[in-house]
Amino acid sequence: MIPENSTSSEDSASALGPRPIVGVSLKLYFGLARTRSWLAEVAALDEVLTALPRPVDLFVLPSFPALADAAGLLGPTRIAFGAQNVHWAEAGAWTGEVSAGMLAEAGARYVEVGHAERRRHFGETDETVAAKTRAATRAGLIPVICAGERRGGDPVAAVEETLAQVRAALAGATPGSEVVLAYEPVWAIGGREPAPAAHVRTVTAALRDALRDHDVPGRVIYGGTAGPGTYTKLAGAVDGLFLGRLAHDTEGLRAVLEEVSGG
């Protein structure tokens, strides 16, 4: 089931710009039982979403074994779910892999591709990410394309490195498909604080240009030690946030939703 508010960024655009969006990746922090209880807590936030002064899209990315639970618990709500990974092939002898078509059948709406951990630990390349983006968009999924520079300090170098990753991924997108660009400077992931606002603004402005250049509708979000206060500092530069451990406590997630909505 696709949540009622899972419209494209183009459809949801208004005088205030694209509809804000918040995503959460659980990575491999929870077991199945804990994931189920967390999803139940997230489902209860549907009332919060309904009462927000400005609509906000929310999606969560649990591990593969919990997708059925996500469908059951979040299906009646306006909260979308998806997966943290996908394979580029539609079918075949790919032991242990999951296709985009199967994710769509399971009710997934989003899928994460290109995360720095996948690049570092599993050798994923720009070509791999482009192939996964192509598979996701062909299946009607919205890829959450992660990109970011490895070392901090120089925003010009950050733009160059991040843009190379994003342009490669966008080249694989099916024409007219929607994407979410998640700017996640690698050096800020798991750090004590997010990247400086001026640095993020420089990079995300370039990412918006890339979306226009490739004629791909999409929204830009920031991840990398994001939490309450981050969105306010980045007002106008991003359309939302991509959260990690902060969202393990759903009260923290609630606070971010209210902030992003302007409440």
Quick structural gist:
Helix content is 38%, strand content 15%. With 263 residues, it is α/β, with parallel strands linked by helices. The longest helix is centred in the C-terminal third of the chain and has 17 residues, at 197-213.
Give me the CATH superfamily.
Aldolase class I
Largest sheet: 8 strands, parallel, barrel
What structural class results from the helix and strand content? alpha/beta
Whole-number total of structural domains? 1
Compute the gyration radius: what is it? Answer: 17 Å
How many E-type strands?
Answer: 8
In CATH terms, what is the architecture? Answer: Alpha-Beta Barrel
The chain-level mean pLDDT equals 93
Shape: globular
Proportion of residues in extended strands: 5-15%
CATH class type: Alpha Beta
SSE arrangement, N to C: EHHEHEHEHHEHEHEHEH
**How large is the count of helical segments?**
10
Multimeric state of these chains? single chain
Q: According to CATH, what is the topology? A: TIM Barrel
How much helicity do the residues have?
25-40%
Distance between the termini: 28 Å
Q: Biggest sheet: strands side by side, in what order?
A: 1-2-3-4-5-6-7-8
- Poorly predicted runs of 5 or more residues: 1-15
